[in-house]
Hints:
The chain is of the alpha+beta class and about 450 residues long. Helix content is about 50%, strand content about 25%. It has helices spanning about 1-10, 10-80, 85-95, 135-145, 185-195, 250-290, 300-310, 330-335, 340-355, 385-395, 425-435, and strands at about 100-110, 110-115, 150-155, 160-170, 175-185, 200-210, 215, 230-235, 235-245, 320-325, 360-365, 370-380, 400, 405, 410-415. The chain has a 5-stranded antiparallel β-sheet with strand order 2-1-5-4-3, sandwiched between helices. A 4-stranded antiparallel β-sheet has the order 7-6-9-8. The two termini are about 45 Å apart. The relative contact order is 0.10.
Amino acid sequence: xxxxxxxxxxxxxxxxxxxxxxxxxxxxxxxxxxxxxxxxxxxxxxxxxxxxxxxxxxxxxxxxxxxxxxxxxxxxxxxxxxxxxxxxxxxxxxxxxxxxxxxxxxxxxxxxxxxxxxxxxxxxxxxxxxxxxxxxxxxxxxxxxxxxxxxxxxxxxxxxxxxxxxxxxxxxxxxxxxxxxxxxxxxxxxxxxxxxxxxxxxxxxxxxxxxxxxxxxxxxxxxxxxxxxxxxxxxxxxxxxxxxxxxxxxxxxxxxxxxxxxxxxxxxxxxxxxxxxxxxxxxxxxxxxxxxxxxxxxxxxxxxxxxxxxxxxxxxxxxxxxxxxxxxxxxxxxxxxxxxxxxxxxxxxxxxxxxxxxxxxxxxxxxxxxxxxxxxxxxxxxxxxxxxxxxxxxxxxxxxxxxxxxxxxxxxxxxxxxxxxxxxxxxxxxxxxxxxxxxxxxxxxxx
Length: 447
């Protein structure tokens, strides 16, 4: 019976259907999220693998260039005392002719460029004093101070254009002697490193990590949430790759299709539950509530009174009052004004009584013009007797109907637990008998 009451409450079907919808969406979404995470992990692994190949190819090309520079630096360190201008120029020209991606080699004695190959198109660089070039001096000084090779760039070149510059200091007997600068041609180097890595599946960009200067690709890729970032160590710094998939994984698109279907299925299940519960609620309403007034019917009244008596058996300081009342000469209203008017009178009286009693009390219609009120109150309370007088007052209040004021009187019988009965049947019988004992005939005339 309690379950039927809950189902019969307004809005319960809507709340349950919403809960079912959210529950199934949550279950499906958790499964889909797990699949999405797996797909994202696989995609990230594939992207990382592609990026690792990019890094390996870049490091291979770069190491080949740096190997030449380091070898030349070693040669100059060992044979510096035997070198003259002709011999150094010959060595530089020969090395340049056999190398790739090199724009030029420059040897500075002290900090001034003394030798350069090829000389053609690089004459402006001859005699250049690094200490007088603000854009290049900090990197030159860093290489000398660290006694290690430093790769910088892209750098704007004095002779025009730009390139990567690998600067390697030359020390003889612990004393700084000079500097070898290897200028790497950017287009040629990048073509050698990435020429075979064109792909319809990925795009990438490369930047120097310390300065965030992007020298290959779109700098915006580094802000893409899908980007996989890979660091690569270069002499004196780091480069960073950003690799981004070009297309959305078809499996993710499939997951969105599944997600839409699961939402639709969840909605259908929620709708089915709503229809079922709504029908059950309607049946419960019919089974427990009076269809005309919306008050509890005899079945629900008996159940609530049984529950009330059960609770009172454990509380000696409380009592239960049962008011049994009907409308005097109600039949005359039906006979004179019709059953429609009689129904309006019953609904009006029911609404007045419902507004008068507390939410914890029960008012029921047994049928016809018979009503029962069940209240629980502390013993010796004046509320019970005050309620009886208020019931008489609200029932006797005129009811306006098509320009007429209908006057209705009421007969009330009161029974108290436990002195007038200890069971539902005994209390209702006692209240009914007292109602008939107090019943007075009243005339109802329109005014």
